[in-house]
Amino acid sequence: MRRLVFVSFLQLVGTLFIVSTLVFFILRVLPGDPARAVLGMQANEQSVQRFRQEFGLDRPVVIQYTEWISGLVRFDFGRSFSNRQPVAPVLGQRLGLTLFLAVGGMICALLLALPMGVAAARKPWGRFDTLAMGVSHGLMAFPEFWIGMVGILLFSVQLKLFPLFGTGFGIHLVLPVLALGLNRAPILFRTLRGGLIQESSRSYALFFRGSGVPERRLFWKYLLRNQLPSVSAVAAIQFGYLLGGAIIIEQVFALPGLGRLLMSAILSRDLPVIQAGVILAALAFTLVGFATDIITHASTSQGMTRGKPNG
Amino acid sequence: MARPDPALWCSNVHVRFPDGSHPVRGVSLRVYPGQVFALIGESGAGKTLLCRALYGLQRFIPGMEVMGTIGGAAEKAMIFQDPGQFLNPGLSIEGHFKEFLKLSPRPSLTMEQLLRYVGLPENREFSRKKPRLLSGGQQQRVMIALSLALEPKVLFADEAVTALDGLTRKTVIELLRQLCQDFGLGIIFVTHDLHVADSLADWVGVMYAGRIVELQSAENLFTQPLHPYTKGLFRSHPGPEHRNSPLIELPGRMPPPDHEDGGCPFFDRCPERMAVCKQHLPEMKELSRGVSVSCHRVFQDRGY
Question: What is the ipTM metric for this complex?
Answer without folding.
Answer: 0.86
